[in-house]
Specification:
161 residues; mainly beta; Tubby Protein, Chain A; twelve-stranded antiparallel sheet; 1 helix; 12 strands; 12% helix; globular
């Protein structure tokens, strides 16, 4: 039986290039995220403790609505698309059978699959910079769930610009 995992993601404030670590439940560095400064569209690379790239998030530049591609171990596994809505943000995942739902303004949402939770995300507001807790149900989904959360964060950031 899977025990699930918790990851903690804190982005650095006032950074020209996205660069931050993902910590495990014990406060140890588990992943390192680095963005590309000179790229067409936003690109984030996720590396494990050994420095091996395990995931990448890439923005499609010429798109009516924000669209990001998710790669895990070099293979495209999903797209995250912001849908057109008037009152609240809504996102669609293309690829896996995952559904995103929640309060994106407050950064509290779940990604589910067939009614079961894949990852629950909660933003901690009283911290310096954006800090998120990712509660991942099954360790096998850890990297993809992390990449999806990074995608949603990128889409929200793109809407602010």
């Amino acid at each position: 039986m899977d025990n699930g995992t918790k990851l903690y993601m804190k982005q650095k404030v006032f950074s020209w290039v996205d660069e931050f670590t993902i910590k495990d439940a014990y406060g140890e560095d588990k992943y390192f995220v680095r963005g590309e400064f000179f790229s067409l569209g936003k690109k984030l690379h996720v590396y494990d403790r050994t420095g091996r790239e395990v995931a990448m998030v890439h923005q499609q530049v010429f798109s009516l609505m924000p669209r990001f591609f998710v790669y895990v171990n070099g293979e495209k596994v999903a797209e995250v698309v912001k849908e057109f809505t008037f009152f609240y943000p809504k996102y669609r995942i293309e690829g896996p059978d995952w559904i995103i739902d929640g309060d994106f303004w407050d950064h509290v949402y779940d990604i589910t699959c067939h009614g079961g939770t894949v990852v629950s995300v909660a933003k901690e507001w009283m911290t310096w910079g954006d800090c998120y807790e990712l509660d991942i149900e099954h360790p096998k989904d850890e990297i993809m769930a992390l990449a999806m959360v990074l995608c949603i964060d990128c889409v929200i950031e793109a809407q602010r610009d």
